[in-house]
Amino acid sequence: MAAENEVxxxxxxxSMGEAPEQAAQALVDNAHSLMDQRQYEExxxxxxxxxxxxxxxxxxxxxxxxxxxxxxxxxxxxxxxxFEDSLAxxxxxxxxxxxxxxxxxxxxxxxVLIHKAHxxxxxxxxEAAVPxxxxxxxxxxxxxxxxxxxxxxxxxxxxxxxLGELNRLDEGLPLYDEVFRRFAGASDVVLRYHAxxxxxxxxxxxxxxxxxxxxxxxxxxxxxHFRGASDARLRDMVTAAQEGLGRTLEMLKSAEVxxxxxxxxxxxxxxxxxxxxxxxxxxxxxxxxxxxxQQHRSEEMLSVFDEVLRRFDKASEPALRDAVAEAILYKxxxxxxxxxxPEALAFYEAMIPRYGxxxxxxxxxxxxxxxxxxxxxxxxxxxxxxEEVAAFDELDRRYGGDTEPEVREEVARGLACKGEILWKLxxxxxxxxxxxxxxxxxxxxxxxxVRERVAExxxxxxxxxxxxxxxxxxxxxxxxxxxxxxxxxxIAASLERQPRGPTALWNAGYxxxxxxxxxxxxxxxxxxxxxxxxQQRSRGLQGGALSPIPEDEELRALVGSL
Length: 562
Prior knowledge:
mainly alpha
């Protein structure tokens, strides 16, 4: 009998007298052991046995083991780079257990949400991962139990990673700092591992974002804090930090070599009055600014741009005027990034009139068009909305008749931005007119990038009308339905130009849903999700939540079933 029970233990079969929850736990524990040994297919087979035998159990103790198995399956499939299958495993677990009020199952479903976020990131859908992490953080805010602390650490890390993938480092980096601050001194080794991983991940993002000096500080902090740790995983973190430190030092050395090369060009030609030499100096200065940009040395970049302006502001040669226009554009951008918005605005207002003429070379016109767009953005940042509209009008007035693709794209983008601002100012018909002007003026554009602007503008006009319909949905249903008819026409026109646009398909599906055309809505929403994936699902549901109506709950259920 003892031998028989030993065989049962290894295979996960229940031995005589063994309760279902013990048998289920044995299967999960053995599967996890196989995962640790990287025997992934064997682990999946054991978890498959568990689902077959216990997946329909209503006993909470057994459901806990089933939920653990779903998490293990999601991790295993991720290790095998079967991310779609990993996502499906998470979705199935959430379908089964998301509504549970059991404390342990709520903890496990939170872990499922974190693994779903990782699956989405691996599928290139980081935008959809962020709200999942937020849901976990809100659910367990303030919890101090060891298990929930691990959940919180995992959610913070996953959200930081997703924000990093979305190039929203300014939001993500403080989350890494929070994980280290909260858990670096924890007694639980898993929490300390999360703290080390936070520093390592932060350092990697900083290095890959060309911020090597900040990355060095993270690597050094990690090594100082965890050097001598007894846990093998923490020692691996220290080793990884040492390797990253070496690569970062090489990056700094390479940048210094590049800067030295540029400085040599400047020394060789800075005093020459020859046209070719002056061009070399201008290009060398801009190349120096680019190296500094890659290392986030913003104050030094500003000094380089000032040097370009000092040397060449009055030059008449096209190449030098282009160099000055580039310095103008990016000096304003850098000032804006440094939160010196008034200074950026004043700089643009002083320089754009001097380089914004119609006879300037095409590259100068394109850079001034971009500068006008940034001027408008900075005015909006300062909540000077009417002046923001006026800046986009100036962009159109200066360059609306330009025939060059680079300039036309900026004008089309500016008109669409103007439409959005006017709508936010409750000037609906003027907003729609701005969107329609993009379509009228550029509907036959030969450039693909400009035609894309037309499709986007028509879709945006449709979205504005959908929101107008939702505003009066409860009190003035006839007026709301009239808005939906107008929205439908705009979205249909957008889809004529981009038939596989997932956002426009979603909006068409939403309109059909509100019009009571449920089968058509299901078909359009399914196609939207097929093309746009979980990212489109998240974006669509978030957009709908901005102005909710009672029918949105039914829509969420419909979307959840697709």
